[in-house]
Specification:
CATH architecture of the largest domain in chain B: Orthogonal Bundle
Largest sheet of chain A: none
CATH superfamily of the largest domain in chain A: MetI-like
CATH topology of the largest domain in chain A: MetI-like fold
Oligomer: heterodimer
Number of helices of chain B: 15
Strand content of chain B: 5-15%
Helix content of chain B: 55-70%
Largest sheet of chain B: 6 strands, antiparallel
Order of helices and strands of chain A: HHHHHHHHHHHHH
Number of strands of chain B: 8
Largest interface: A-B, 107 and 99 residues
CATH class of the largest domain in chain B: Mainly Alpha
Radius of gyration of chain B: 30 Å
Structural class of chain A: mainly alpha
CATH superfamily of the largest domain in chain B: MetI-like
Number of helices of chain A: 13
Order of helices and strands of chain B: HHHEEEEEEEEHHHHHHHHHHHH
Radius of gyration of chain A: 26 Å
CATH topology of the largest domain in chain B: MetI-like fold
CATH class of the largest domain in chain A: Mainly Alpha
Distance between the termini of chain A: 57 Å
CATH architecture of the largest domain in chain A: Orthogonal Bundle
């Protein structure tokens, strides 16, 4: 078995290389013609063009169009048919008697989504980074089976959000594994997904479960980059383990930690599919998140309110950018 | 005691000194507990997917997929379920049930179908054995249009990954190996959009797609994500490490710019390309939000969209959903099993997903 495996991959590789060379040969005429026409230095533009086209049309242009939607009203989809309304969409979205009570807001769903997402971000990010750090520190020890355990913790990262949601929905359903265990120990069955508090709790748990392996890997790479000689020197000086962790590990891990926190925050703010497939935002609106709100308002409700959806997107983007900048700034302050 | 000593010497051997470190024990406990939590749910799903619809609704649930044994008896069309029945005289016999009337079951001995035994239902226990039944998979594939969704997913994943590699590597080549006006501007704009998630531009991208006429097409999912800033960044950083002298000497030898890209840069950038390819496959296979918005008719659905639609039907048919979920996670699990070294080191060095 093991002897044939490399041969198989090399055969596949040969096939791919052959295919690639074929395509290269076909495009030769085209690109050489271009080079004769433009000169060799200008070929850079030719190489960057396809990417720039896709990037411009599907990322850059939409970012600008977003403002077009946010400042126009009506129900039409085409921008030309939409009347300019100034900041009316923003005023509508932020029309609240009291910002602490979503019920007092004109767009109460938006504010519920804001509150749910904020709660989710706080709990998910802190628990996930806590567990990732602990796991990374343990995996950084010289233990047997490290590679295996590293893969184990990473495996759920590969699963699609839909699959993760379905796995846990199956375990947590009324007659599922968890309730079976509970009843076995003499407790009552719990309707995990139709109780607001439980639903919020499990949303955090399953997303920590699904994503922590990714951050564990990054933190582990950060830990492994810390030179061993520092620990050896500290040991000679009689430092305790805790002192070493506090005075060597934590400060040297800070750059990695910054990347991890920024990434985790950005992803937590825009969480959608895993919760959508898990609870559909329910029960009621207990787990409705910002992106689901944008989806519901812009795509799912019969009256598609693109203006409000875009306004909410822009608000979210602004919050993300500000949060990232604050993080970078705080880090710079402390480094100086 | 001596067994204990053996274990402790075995465990502490890696640390080079001859005692069992307390923090090592705690670490192993944590890792083993973690393995249970990380793999347990998936294992539970896989086990459940082999259960028939009777066993799947059984509460409290059991880990292994048990199935009641049946026997074919002459004179009866369907196979009869087997029970261990306690008869009135106290003897226990393995009998096949022919019908149940209220609280009473009528059973026969398969070897002697003439005599009918009447037993109260609480006096009989089903005869069960562990059976990994593929019925759910078979039925699921038939009722769920699995092969079509699978094909759509494979098609999207492969074409999108090929396109991503080509377009991003060309751009990365230009950005790393040429000096031209606008180079830095282009690079900075691309990098700054790294932080802006797709979900922020949902409405306008949908407008663009609609205007082009790609609504409800697979092209509409493949193209927009092909120019990932992450991919350009990763490849550019890698290509910067390729020495310029190689390119210069190729030029002197008369190679065209296209040949330099295709036959010098691409082969040398293979490690970075492999990482990007693996990630692209992962992104595309698991992608949900964008396909969910673009695709409106079920003949275009990818697996993820199909699965979500199937599970949000009014009556959840768990036995089918579980089987389909297993089939959906199977390919990515296989990819992981074979390429996990590349994936884990790839993430650790590039910090991307």
């Amino acid at each position: 078995m093991q002897e044939t495996a490399p041969q198989n991959t090399s055969a596949a590789e040969k096939g791919l290389t052959g295919l690639f060379n074929g395509i290269v040969g076909l495009l030769d005429v085209f690109f050489n013609g271009l080079q004769r026409l433009l000169g060799s230095t200008n070929m850079a533009y030719v190489f960057v063009l396809p990417n720039l086209l896709i990037f411009g049309i599907f990322i850059l242009l939409p970012m600008m169009l977003n403002f077009g939607y946010a400042f126009t009203g009506g129900i039409d989809f085409r921008l030309a048919d939409r009347p300019y309304v100034g900041t009316a969409n923003f005023e509508q979205l932020f029309d609240c008697e009291s910002f602490s009570d979503p019920n007092s807001c004109r767009e109460d769903l938006f504010w519920r989504a804001v509150f749910n997402t904020s709660g989710y971000v706080v709990f998910q990010v802190s628990f996930m980074i806590g567990f990732s750090l602990l796991t990374a520190i343990i995996l950084n020890k010289n233990l047997r089976g490290r590679a295996f355990f590293r893969s184990v913790f990473f495996y759920p990262v590969l699963l699609s959000p839909i699959v993760v949601a379905l796995i846990w929905k199956w375990i947590l359903q009324e007659f599922g594994l968890f309730n079976g265990v509970l009843e076995n120990f003499g407790f009552e069955r719990v309707m995990f997904l139709t109780n607001s508090t439980w639903a919020r709790f499990w949303v955090v748990v399953i997303s920590v479960w699904a994503y922590m392996g990714f951050y564990t890997l990054i933190l582990l790479a950060g830990l492994q980059a810390i030179p061993n000689s520092l620990y050896e020197a500290a040991q000679i000086d009689g430092a305790t383990r805790f002192q070493m962790f506090r005075n060597i590990t934590l400060p040297l891990l800070r750059p990695t930690m910054l990347v991890v926190v920024v990434l985790a925050l950005i992803r937590a703010v825009q969480v959608f599919d895993i919760i959508f497939a898990f609870t559909r935002g329910g029960p009621g609106t207990a787990t409705l998140t910002l992106v689901q709100y944008i989806y519901e308002i812009g795509f799912a409700s019969p009256s598609r309110r693109f203006g409000i959806a875009s306004t909410a997107s822009i608000t979210m983007a602004v919050v993300l950018v500000i949060a990232t900048l604050i993080q970078l700034w705080v880090n710079r302050e402390e480094e100086a | 005691m001596s067994a204990n000593n053996n274990i402790s010497t075995f465990l502490s051997r890696t640390r080079g000194h001859n005692r069992l470190d307390m923090s090592d024990i705690l670490s192993y406990v944590y890792l083993i507990f973690g393995t249970l939590i990380m793999f347990g749910p998936v294992l539970w799903l896989v086990m459940s997917s082999f259960k028939d619809s009777g066993e799947i609704n059984k509460f409290p649930p059991r880990f292994l997929p048990y199935q009641q044994e049946t026997v074919v008896v002459e004179g009866f069309e369907d196979p009869l379920p087997l029970y261990m029945a306690t008869l009135e005289d106290g003897t226990v016999r393995q009998l096949a049930q022919i019908r149940r009337i209220g609280l009473e079951a009528q059973l026969i001995d398969p070897a002697d179908p003439e005599t009918i035994y009447k037993v109260r239902i609480e006096n009989r226990e089903p005869v069960e054995s562990v059976t990994f039944s593929l019925d759910n998979f078979r039925e699921g594939i038939e009722s769920f249009n699995f092969s079509l969704y699978l094909w759509n997913s494979i098609f999207v994943t492969i074409t999108a990954t090929a396109l991503t590699l080509l377009v991003n590597s060309m751009a990365a080549f230009a950005l790393s190996k040429y000096k031209f006006t606008g180079r830095n501007t282009i690079f900075v704009i691309m990098i700054s959009t790294l932080m802006i998630p797709v979900s922020v531009v949902l409405v306008p991208v949908f407008l663009v797609i609609t205007e082009i006429g790609w609504n409800n097409t697979l092209t509409g999912i493949i193209i927009p994500g092909a120019a990932t800033p992450t991919g350009v960044f990763l490849l550019r950083q890698y290509m910067l490490t390729i020495p310029d002298e190689l390119i210069d000497s190729a030029r002197i030898d008369g190679a065209s710019e296209w040949r330099i890209y295709a036959q010098i840069i691409m082969p040398l950038a293979r490690p970075a390309l492999a990482v990007l390819a693996i990630f692209s496959i992962m992104w595309r296979w698991n992608d949900f939000l964008w396909p969910f918005i673009v695709l409106s008719e079920s003949d275009k659905f990818t697996l993820q969209v199909g699965l979500q639609t199937f599970q949000s039907d009014l009556t959840i048919q768990w036995h089918l959903i579980l089987a389909m979920t297993v089939l959906t996670l199977l390919p990515i699990t296989l990819v992981f099993a074979f390429l996990q070294k590349y994936i884990t080191t790839g993430i650790a060095t590039t910090g991307m997903k």
